[in-house]
Amino acid sequence: TAGFPRDKLLVVTEQRDPDPAFSTVDFPNPEEGASALDLSFQLANKSGSSYILANDPDADRLGVAQKLRDGSWKILSGNEIGALLGWWLLRCYKERNKDVALSKLHFLASTVSSKILNTIAKKEGINFTETLTGFKHMGNKSSELQKAGEVVLFAYEEAIGFMCGTNVLDKDGVAASVVVTELIRHLETRDLMLTDQLESLYTTYGYHYSLNSYYLCYDPAITDKIFNRIRNYMSDTNQSYPEYF
After folding, report:
1. Is the dihedral of CA 115, 119, 120, 124 positive or negative?
2. Do residues 51 and 64 touch, judged by C-beta distance below 8 A?
3. Residue 195: which H helix or E strand, with range?
4. Over 90: is that where the pLDDT of 43 sits?
5. Burial of 155 (0-12, 13-18, 19+ CB in 10 A)
6. Is residue 94 exposed (0-12), middle (13-18) or buried (19+ Cβ within 10 Å)?
7. pTM to 2 decimals?
8. To bridge 116 with a disulfide, which of 17, 59, 124, 208 should be the other Cys (CB 3.0-4.6 Å)?
9. Angle made by CA atoms 211, 228, 111, in degrees to the nearest 5
10. Alpha-carbon distance 176 to 53, whole Å?
11. Which residues pair with 63 in a beta bridge?
12. Mean pLDDT across the chain, nearest whole number?
């Protein structure tokens, strides 16, 4: 539908049709990383493909993996994909709208995401808004901006959720896969890959790094103790942040 050559788009047959048991994976969300992409890696290696685009079952998230020049695979983080999509959508908009008023253009990201969009926005003269976690906040803010005559180019959250434009005021993995593929095709004409462009962004806007993870705790008493400490750590007499918990 988007005009890409059909013979270049391969589908993992075992994961093509709806499967409510998610029988091919331990976790169906590509945010989980390699475990959700095992069959994709196998097909890509067999066919000589350079990229994997993976939607979760309801197709609101997009995972991206790139085959590096040494033959290994890199799974791009949500922040890395977000940086690439933000840069690309801004570039495309400026190409199509030569007389655009940059002061009317907007990026959005949730507070748990990288601040690289903020850095890009400051350097390029456009606006950046940070919202609370969740696309309801970014969607509502985008709707407000649109009603005020502003242009929202892109919003994202590090958990591989991306809103490219405003046709859908929510994360949309299908639209994001099209935009990522457009960027891939553009870079291929210059003999570049996504990771090359990512390094170019760091050179231009400064290196941004984030390390997100989580701990599993099955003891409610310990959970209560941890969060009570977080909530009450700072006080009138203690204004420093903890070094550990």
Report:
1. positive
2. yes
3. helix 194-205
4. yes
5. buried
6. middle
7. 0.89
8. 208
9. 35
10. 10
11. 54
12. 93
